[in-house]
Amino acid sequence: MYWINDPTMWAGLFTLIILEIILGIDNLLFITIFVEKLPMPLNNKARITGLFCALVMRIVLLFSFTFIISFTTPIISFAKYNFSARDLLIFFGGCFLLFKASSELNERLRDKEDKINRKSKTAKFWSVVIQIIILDAIFSLDSVITAIGIIDNIHLMIIAIVISIALMIIASKGLIIFVNNHPNIIIICLVFLFMIGIVMITDSLGYEISKSYLYISLGVAIFIEICNELYSLNQSNLFKKKFFYNNNAKYILQILNYERTISNHIYSNSNFNCSTIDIMNLQDYQIVLLLLQFTQRTVNSIMIPINYADSIAMYSSKQQLLSLLKSTNHTNLVIVGDSLSNIPIGIVNIREIIKQYLNKKKIDLYKIIKQPLIFFEKLSLFDALQQFANTNISFAFVIDQLGVIKGILTLSDIINTITTNVVISSKKFDLRYHVKHYNNSMLVNSMMRIEDLKLYIPITIDKIRSYETIGGLLMSRLQKIPVVGDYIIIDNWIFEVFEATTIKLKKILITYKFSDIKNNYY
Fold first, then answer.
1. What is the dihedral angle through the alpha carbons of 111, 116, 121, 125, rounded to the nearest 10 degrees?
2. What pLDDT tens digit does each residue of the chain (522 aa) get?
3. Looking at residue 369, what DSSP letter applies?
4. Where is the CBS domain (predicted)?
5. Phi, psi (5° rounding) for residue 60?
6. CATH classification code of 436-521
7. What are the two backbone dihedrals, phi and then psi, of residue 442, each rounded to the nearest 5 degrees?
8. Rounded CA gap, 314 and 364, in Å?
């Protein structure tokens, strides 16, 4: 073990390991291509078996190195060429490599139909292993001769060969995965093996060609292939982005063109929702349409009219206040100056009233009243949402151009407009507006907004109007408080009062004009 303290031996060992790996690259490529033809469970087994056979063969040849050296002695002469046993082995090995590389290239460059037929016939395990062993014998010869020429210590030779084979076993699995994921690399490797076969034949004839040229050409070819792969990947991503944007643009254009194309649609019992867009389901369509309309809608399109809000005078009695608390479903009350003027002056959160009541304090609305935000009725929902976000207030009064309070708006109203007002299916209904679908008809709450109704049916409504709900639409057209049975017709749609009291509309039945209302519903 004197070599442990000898730096020259260590230098020779590292040099030999590197050379063994370089000399084993062509062997590794051949094994990678051969085992790729096997089924997946046998793939890994054949790879390890082939490299293990290469290790055993090289160690056996090392122990008989005196016999190996004699392989270089000429034994046959032909014309001006003298052939040793080594030359003959390399010559026939080169011919075998040429045959296998060319046959593999021919197989992979066949027509698609032939490829499918050949893929159905998997190679046999032992036939692949035997071919690997034959190539191992040829490639091991150069490896062993190189080892003998660099180091004269057989132990170091064995260590170098074992380390190089172990590294190749570790690297081979990743190489196989890489080759399988990039089929074009297989073609490059087969061409490389074909060139190695030619070099082996010329070497046996005495014309030595440096393998460094082969390795450089292989590296350049792989570099070019990597560039092509990156280019193809970038082009594929660009195509996907363009396809995505073009599709989205097409969907949005179809949505914007919705009202014009809808007139050609024949409404059937099974498709009341009237969508002519086959590439998008109704839910996706309405979500996109809702978002497109969001920036164009104003606060007066979703506000609650002030006369529908729960309000109470500032100095109401305790009994009046508690009675209102029992009946209300809201979390805030509108406070008015007095019951006669009915002018809103602020809001009170119901929780603050309950706190005063539970603490057995006198209920004083003046102490807990808060000032809401003030929105102009034509303010966009997007701007209103931004103002809510910039303040800690989630309640607002909506005024007209004369400063008269027309309604109230909360942050939750805007959120509900974005999230909850989407039809899920024809069998379900929107809890906010009680939308129910029937044969060619649907029943809606009279408080449903006109803009929200357009998500269900295409109707043309005046842009300048004094109403925002379906109930307001009927009262505006009929110029009275409608009763059950009253109806109007807009764009082939019949709006009929289905349920009402003497002072308030409740349910409206909307039916396509060509349907028989009585037969469909009553």
1. 90
2. 555 666 766 776 777 677 667 666 666 777 777 777 777 667 777 777 777 877 787 777 777 765 655 566 677 777 777 777 777 777 877 787 788 778 777 877 775 445 444 444 455 777 777 777 777 766 666 666 666 656 666 777 778 778 877 887 787 777 777 766 767 777 777 777 788 778 878 877 878 777 677 767 777 877 887 888 788 888 777 776 676 666 666 666 665 554 444 434 433 333 444 444 444 555 566 666 666 667 777 888 788 888 878 888 888 788 888 888 888 877 888 888 766 667 888 888 888 888 888 887 777 888 888 889 999 988 888 889 889 888 888 899 999 888 888 888 988 888 877 765 444 433 344 444 556 666 678 888 888 878 778 777 778 777 667 777 888 888 888 888 889 999 999 888 899 999 888 878 889 998 887 544 444 433
3. -
4. 368-426
5. -60, -45
6. 3.30.465.10
7. -150, 145
8. 9
- 460: tokens are 């043309």
SS3 category, 355: helix
299-419 domain in CATH 3.40.50.720?
Answer: no
CB 442 within 8 A of CB 272: yes
Q: Which of 277, 488, 283, 306 is nearest to 404 (CA)?
A: 306
Strands 304-305 and 311-313: unpaired
- d(C-alpha 120, C-alpha 420), whole Å: 54
Closest CA to 192 of 25, 346, 53: 25
Q: Which amino acid is at 205?
A: L
Any idea how long the chain is? 522
Cα 88–Cα 92–Cα 96 angle in degrees, nearest 5? 165
Looking only at the bridges linking them, the beta strands covering 304-305 and 441-445 are: unpaired
